[in-house]
Write a structure and sequence with these properties.
- This protein is an alpha/beta fold.
- It has one domain: Alpha-Beta Barrel (TIM Barrel), CATH 3.20.20.
- It is 32% helix and 14% strand.
- The chain has nine helices and ten strands.
- Helix 1 links the parallel strand 1 and strand 2.
- The radius of gyration is 18 Å and the shape is globular.
- It starts with 5 loop residues before the first strand and ends in a 10-residue tail after the last helix.
- The C terminus is likely disordered.
Length: 305
């Protein structure tokens, strides 16, 4: 398959599903053309693994910070305190140019750091240590598929994190399962046009896609696009490509022909090809446009604060 530079906008590469071959999995991703991997956080238990990867692969494996809705329980306020504490540690950030750092060697950070096409700096923490800057608040949202016990807490957690995003000039990465219109209502309740981001793993209708776009959000397109009855064949041909980004949600939701198996970042090109087929454009155009779309989210949060 032709190697194209692309950004993976949502992958849980710190997950224990990759414990036995994480380095090899990342090598396959970089060899497939992936230039950045954006990692959503779930709760306090996933932070250490995520930040270890962000430090090992600076400017390539880029972390988010947030509380996943299915992790919202009775103690959600304590979890949000941890989220806010991490965000408040940021004392210096940098302005980033809309370009991609392309690693030529997946095991050494020097080649990445020397890439002249980008000027991303790490965040200097209040204790003097340095960690990669967060790219977003995520993943956050609502999930009414598995359990509705903490619906009100999910709503409150989402609103609080939306306000954190605005405070820290970050976009939001939205998890929304069986709760699209509930999330829309909350976004409209925030009522700030500066709030933007991605509806991760979008699998909705054309009407829902248009609503998300009207709110200023992009659609995260993943493996479901390759499923025979995934439904995105009724959506993607009718929207502008400037509104979509690519993701895998690894290790979940592997695209055809790997459906039902462990997903990994190297499968992004399969998703890009399916998007190209549905939108009747070249895969090169999909790679170029979705990369530009992803990068367009970054400048608003790359400010000193």
């Amino acid at each position: 398959m032709l190697k194209l530079n692309m950004i993976e906008t949502h992958a849980h590469i710190y997950d224990d599903a990759f414990d036995e071959d994480r380095t090899q999995m990342l090598e396959r991703a970089f060899e497939s053309g992936i230039t950045q991997i954006w990692m959503p956080n779930c709760d306090h238990t996933t932070i250490d693994g995520m930040m270890a990867l962000a430090t090992q692969y600076p400017h390539v494996c880029r972390p988010m910070m947030g509380l996943h809705p299915t992790y919202v329980k009775a103690d959600f306020e304590q979890e949000l305190y941890i989220v806010e504490n991490w965000l408040d540690k940021m004392t210096i950030s940098a302005v980033e140019t809309p370009s991609v750092a392309t690693p030529s060697n997946t095991t050494t950070s020097a080649s990445i750091n020397n890439t002249s096409s980008t000027s991303i700096n790490n965040t200097i923490l209040t204790d003097g240590s340095s960690v990669p800057q967060f790219v977003a608040i995520g993943e956050i949202g609502m999930d009414l598929y598995w359990d509705k016990t903490f619906v009100e807490q999910q709503k409150e957690a989402f609103l609080i994190q939306c306000n954190l995003a605005l405070k820290h000039h970050l976009w939001i990465d939205i998890h929304c399962r069986n709760a699209f219109w509930e999330v829309v209502e909350l976004i409209e309740k925030v009522g700030d046009t500066q709030l933007t981001g991605i509806f991760h793993c979008f699998t909705g209708t054309l009407e829902e896609a248009q609503k998300a776009i009207d709110l200023g959000f992009k659609l995260g397109i993943g493996g479901v696009a390759t499923f025979k009855n995934g439904g995105l064949d009724k959506v993607l041909p009718y929207i502008d490509m400037k509104h979509i980004v690519l993701e895998t949600d690894s290790p979940y939701l592997a695209p055809v022909p790997y459906r039902g198996k462990r997903n990994e970042v190297a499968y992004v090109p399969l998703i890009a090809q399916r998007v190209a087929d549905l939108m009747q454009v070249s895969v090169e155009m999909v790679a170029s446009q979705t990369t530009a779309n992803a990068l367009s989210l970054l400048p608003s949060m790359q400010q000193i604060h």
